[in-house]
């Protein structure tokens, strides 16, 4: 019987038919989607913190309004993604509790500090730039609710990347101090952005199966290479450079070669030992505790409404 279900499931994958919440699916497919989508949701929510740090200090009213809108978009992305993950059978409360206990992962990138205003530019250009490449691929993922959430997210992400690039463009044409600030932010965010794509393919434990199930359509290394090729060209417009002496166009492969990534640093950050891991989780836990009264008030209101409706119906 199970074999029959597996055949139908595989046929759908082969024919590019989306898998929907009520369809039969192998338990491992459900689990790995739940793992990836919930990690993605947590990344959006934790990802609000490094930029949130600059909302009160944005250099103008216009910059402040743009940054505020971007951070709000990220909250929205987190909510679509939690909803998509919930269709796989785990409650949002459980997912959030796994984040707060340190059990669940979120993207390594958000464990780095935002020291200057130029970091807002570097996050938009590099971090959102990396995220877009990954997320455009995921609009074609095989799980229906995840794929549909990503279509909407990608529309907003392309605006995010442009606003980041524009912040850096203005700084790169400014005073010597502003130029130095721009280069410094690029230097600090470049390598962590490359790590966002995950370990190299030979070390990626989930990739093989996720590629077979069409959850992922490109491997970590393929996407990372796409990113390097894109950014190595865009940085020329800024008149800045990437902090990699080995970065060089390769006429044979038609791609940029680039230097070695510090994987020791990546795994330390993933394990919770990055510069801001503790601070990020503490901020999330505190926000959750501070919001307890809102959840209680909403439940009490829903309870009251139900009681009123019962009285009316009687
Ligand atoms: N950080 O087998 P692998 C945004 C883990 S937010 C931490 O290759 P997979 C934004 C991985 O989970 C966008 N952990 O995994 C928001 C696995 O551990 P488990 C964030 C990482 O899943 C605010 C282990 O390493 N985007 O746009 O096949 C402001 C082995 O890896 C990382 C997403 O979440 C990492 N970087 O591939 C601005 C995209 N990389 O779970 C911007 C959705 C790997 O087995 N996610 N690990 O214990 C994905 O596409 C995939 O999950 C990944 C990794 C490509 C990230």
N-to-C terminal Cα separation, in Å?
48 Å
| Class computed from helices, strands and strand pairing | mainly alpha
Largest sheet: 2 strands, antiparallel
Helix % is 55-70%
Q: Compute the gyration radius: what is it?
A: 21 Å
In total, the number of strands is 2
Low-confidence stretches: none
Number of helices, where a helix is a run of at least 4 consecutive DSSP H or I residues = 13
Query: How do the strands of the widest beta sheet line up side by side?
Result: 1-2
Give the topology string: H per helix, E per strand. HHHHHHHHHHEEHHH
Proportion of beta-strand residues: under 5%
Could you say which small molecules are bound to this protein?
Answer: benzoyl coenzyme A
Produce a short descriptive summary.
By secondary structure, the chain is mainly α. The chain is built from 13 helices and two strands, in the order ααααααααααββααα.
What would you note in describing this structure?
The chain is 69% helix and 2% strand. With 314 residues, it is mainly alpha-helical. A two-stranded antiparallel ribbon has the order 1-2. Strand 1 (248-250) and strand 2 form a beta hairpin. Bound molecules: benzoyl coenzyme A (BYC). The site of benzoyl coenzyme A has 28 residues, from helix 2, helix 6 and helix 9.
């Amino acid at each position: 019987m199970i074999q029959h279900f597996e055949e139908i499931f595989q046929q759908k994958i082969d024919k590019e038919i989306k898998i929907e919440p009520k369809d039969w699916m192998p338990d491992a497919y459900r689990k790995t989607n739940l793992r990836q989508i919930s990690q993605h949701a947590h990344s959006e929510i934790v990802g609000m913190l490094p930029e949130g740090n600059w909302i009160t200090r944005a250099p103008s009213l216009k910059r402040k309004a743009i940054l505020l809108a971007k951070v709000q978009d990220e909250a929205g992305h987190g909510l679509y993604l939690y909803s998509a993950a919930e269709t796989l059978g785990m409650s949002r409360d459980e997912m959030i509790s796994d984040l707060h206990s340190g059990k669940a992962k979120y993207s390594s990138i958000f464990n780095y500090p935002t020291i200057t205003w130029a970091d807002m530019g570097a996050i938009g250009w590099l971090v959102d730039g990396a995220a877009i490449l990954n997320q455009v691929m995921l609009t074609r993922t095989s799980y229906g609710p995840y794929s549909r959430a990503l279509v909407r997210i990608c529309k907003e992400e392309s605006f995010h990347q442009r606003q980041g690039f524009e912040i850096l463009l203005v700084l790169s044409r400014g005073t010597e101090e502003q130029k130095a600030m721009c280069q410094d932010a690029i230097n600090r965010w470049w390598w962590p952005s490359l790590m966002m794509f995950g370990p190299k393919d030979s070390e990626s434990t989930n990739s093989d199966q996720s590629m077979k199930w069409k959850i992922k359509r490109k491997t970590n290394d393929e996407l990372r290479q796409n990113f390097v090729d894109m950014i190595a060209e865009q940085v020329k417009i800024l008149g800045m450079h990437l902090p990699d002496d080995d970065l060089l166009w390769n006429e044979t492969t038609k791609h940029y070669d680039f230097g070695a990534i510090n994987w020791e640093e990546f795994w330390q950050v993933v394990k919770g030992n990055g510069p801001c891991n503790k601070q990020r989780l503490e901020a999330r836990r505190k926000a959750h505790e501070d919001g307890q009264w809102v959840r209680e008030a909403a439940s009490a209101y829903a309870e009251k409404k139900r009681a009123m409706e019962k009285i009316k119906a009687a």
